[in-house]
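Before a colleague's protein record goes any further, I have to sign it off. Thanks in advance; the entry in question is below:
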Amino acid sequence: MAESTVSMKLLIDKRGKRVVFAEAGKDCVDFLFSILSLPVATIIRLLREEGMDGSLPNLYKSLENLNDDYIEPDKKKDFYLKPVSSSSLPLLALEAASSTGNNSYRCNYCSHYIDPNAQVVSGDGSLVKGVVTYMVMDDLEIKPMSTISSITLLNDFNVKYVGALKEKVVHLGMDEALELLKISLQSKNVLTELFC
C-alpha cells in the first residue's frame, strides 16, 4: 500500500532563507488541524524514538514499565498509553476509529464515526471546506488565502523584489509529518526549519 501524503506550495524568501507562507488545499489543512486531536500519549509514542525533549517521555515509560500488579484490576494501562484519537486522517491517525477494542463505532448508513467522548467526525476525516485555498504561515497559523493578505505579508516581511522569491512544492508523508510535529512543539518557524 502506498504511503499517504499531502502537499503544499511554499513561497520562500531566498535572501532571508525563510518561508513567507505556504499555499495549501483542504487535505493538507485537514491534516494540520488533526494534530490538535492527538492525545498527549500518542504524541509521546510517535516522537520518543525521534528524541523528544522534556519529562513526558519518562512519565510514559514509567507507566509502560509499571508491573500490572500495581494497576487496579478494572483498569488497563493501554487506556492511558494508547488512547483513541478522534482523528481519522491517514498520516498520524495510528489508532483508527474502525479498529477493534476501542469505543468508536461506524454508522452503517452515513459512514460517520461515532465516539461517545467526541464529536461526530465525517467518515473521510474532513474538517474544512475544499472550495478555498488556505494560507499556512511559518508558525502554522492558517487562514483563507487572499491576494490582499499575500501582498500585505510580502510587505511585512520586507520583500522588495519578486525575484527574491521562489516557489517550492513539498510533500508530507509519515516521516515529514513526524518531523513537523516535533518541530511544532519547539519552534515558531516550523515550515522554515522543516523545508529550508
In short: The helical segments are 26-34, 40-47, 56-65, 78-81, 147-156, 174-184, 190-195. Residues 94-122 have pLDDT under 50 and may be disordered. The chain has one domain: 6-39+84-195.
